Amino acid sequence: MHLPNLVYDLGLILASASFVSLIFKRFGQPQVLGYLFAGFLVGPYFEYIPSVKEVDSIKVWAEIGIIFLLFALGLEFSFKKMAKVGGGAITTAVIETTGMFMIGYFVGQTLNWSNINSLFLGGMLAISSTAIILKTFDELGYKNQKFVSHVFGVLVIEDLIAIILMVAFSTLALTNELQGPQLAFTLVKLALFITAWFFAGIVLLPLLLKKMHKHFNEESILLFSIACCFLLVIQAVSFGFSPALGAFVMGSVFSGTGLVNKIEENIKPIKALFSAVFFVSVGMLINPSVIASEWPLILGLSAIVVIFKSSLSTIG
Predict the structure, then answer these.
(1) Are 309 and 102 in contact (CB under 8 A)?
(2) CA–CA gap between residue 69 and residue 132 (Å, rounded)
(3) What predicted TM-score, i.e. pTM, was given to this entire model?
């Protein structure tokens, strides 16, 4: 009997993730670091153990993982929290991203890179990984700390800035010039998209849930919430935004309802499964030959990120 490659790959990923992450936890290291190392072990650049056969299929699973991670983040970040930390989060995000962007561009120019490559480096250094930070806070038990809502606010603003940067850079890479009208159109679309769904979360969804409440059980709540999440993901992509933005906005919409605690409890095992696949898929990208040849640059950029992101965020 033939076993589909997708089943083989998923079994290999979950087995390596569970085994390696347990070793990392035993030595007091973050579980997410274990997932990344497990990804390297089953990836195409490590030939001493069986490797994943269909990398493209794993990318699909990883995309689902990031959707669930950002949906869960949205569930913990209500409109009230957003309003409470909004001013400080915006200030911090603008100072940090602007500063890191300028530093990255300066480093690229110092290395004699082209203007476009220097701009891309600045953009890469300016944006943080929401998924990594969310997973780390979860492991360390920091979610109830006061500073966490502020950090999440900064990450949300960074994700919005990332959308603008991606639009600007994609047109810049293709035409070698920044197209102002297209960028302005994207900003208007982004504002309308978020405003419309925040309105739905405040007015329409509570009314709908009030009428349907008596028909809900745990299974129907889970299916309804995930269906809404993926429908908004589809709509976000149709508007030209990332799936992660749609998932986060839908989570924020549900965070203001009475179902939020049940939804959080029900999606925990699903989020754990798919987020493990996501982080393993990231680890599969690690190429030892690149690290061996570019280690001075990698260490230098890592030091810049640690020192200046911390300093600029503190200033913000």
Answers:
(1) no
(2) 10
(3) 0.77
